[in-house]
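Record filed below.
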Amino acid sequence: MNTRSARMLMLVLSLILPACTAVPGVAVSPSPDPSLQARATSLVSTQAAIATLEASLATDTSATAKASDRQTATQLAAKQQALARQASRTEAAQQAKISSTAQASSMGLFVRKLADEGYIDRPDGTYSSLADFDERWAQMDYYDSWPTGAAPADFVIRADVAWDSASSTANWWNSGCGFVFRYDRKGNHYLAYLALDGNVRYQRYLNGAYTVLGSGYYGKLDLTAGKATIALVVDGDRFTFFVNDREVHSRHDSALQTGELGYTLISGTNKGFGTSCQMTGVELWELE
């Protein structure tokens, strides 16, 4: 082969070989695979769906968090309101306790004095303020009673009493104001009162029979109307009556041990309203 023919051959080979033979060291791209393309498309769609779901979950979580926050805030507000109401009730109870203590202070001092002077054997007890009493009775030489709602066996009761009579000539020894105590289901009871003739009197009603237990003189009282502070101390079988914080009469009797405590009014006239008794500032100390 001459030189010209060789050159022509090399030229033809150079044109043919690149189209048929891969050049060493250079990768040849394969033909596209339709199944791979479908998988790729499906993967992209799945990733998009996941992204959408994550965005939705984020939105739901945010909404749930907000709802939870609102619920927590509502619960906190309700708790704060409950605490405020409790604080208000506690304050009111404390104020009531302070008021009760203030009211009981003078009675407490009186009871302590009674213990120190031997009228009672212990000062411990429970204090209560009783309702005011206001009644009138017009049946000569008779008395009636009204319950206080308490039934202490041993006690101290004290009240400011005001009396009045419709008659200026009443039976003053059978007119007055005081207490019945240890009143049992059979009607048995003790009676202690300040008569308007200036005497403190005790009586006992037991099984249908009246017994006068004794009397002591306080002094002249204002008539037909007047005022005083009276107190009855009952401890065991000993009964002591005070007028204006002064002991007037003390007796012992053990026939009755328990029963109700009440007010009493003794009328010495049938005229008009008869005899009236008003008791205010009534204080009771139930001995323990």
